[in-house]
C-alpha cells in the first residue's frame, strides 16, 4: 500500500476533520435557511456540494505532498476552477422561469457559494468559509422583507 491510502499525509486527522466539519456546518446553515423558507432546494445539496468540494481540495493538496515524482505537477487552482464550473451547472438547475419572473436565483447562487465554502475550508481557511457563510445567511435574513414583497410582473407598457 502507498503512503496516504488510509490516512492524511500532510494534515493531522484533527485538522482534516475540522476542515470537513466546518464545510458541512457552514453549508448546512445556508441550506437550512433555504429549507425553512420553503425554497425549491432543501439543505442536503448544499451540504453534499460543500463536503465534496472540501474533500476534493484536501485530496488534491495531500496528493501533492505524498507524490515522490519530481516531475509531477498539479495546479489546485485548475481543479478548483473545474469544480466551480461544474457546480454552476448544478446551480442552474435551481433556476426556473414562471411567466416573466425567474425564480430560484438566491438558491442557485447559494449552491455555487456552498461549493466555494467547501473549497475554502479544504484549503484550511476555515475562518473565511465561516465569514462567507455568515454573510450569505445574513443577506438572506436581511433581504427577506424586500424579496417577499417583490413583484416583477410585466405591465403591457413594458412589453416590446
Automatic annotation (TrEMBL):
Pfam families: MgtC. One of its GO terms (cellular component) is plasma membrane. The keyword Membrane applies. It is a multi-pass membrane protein. The keyword NADP does not apply. Residues 22-147 form the MgtC/SapB/SrpB/YhiD N-terminal domain. InterPro entries: MgtC/SapB/SrpB/YhiD_fam (IPR003416), MgtC_SapB_SrpB_YhiD_N (IPR049177). The chain crosses the membrane at residues 16-36, 43-65, 77-96, 108-141. It is found in: Cell inner membrane; Cell membrane. Keywords: Cell inner membrane, Cell membrane, Membrane, Transmembrane, Transmembrane helix. Its main location: membrane. It comes from the Bacteria. Belongs to the MgtC/SapB family. This is Protein MgtC. It comes from Sphingomonas rubra.
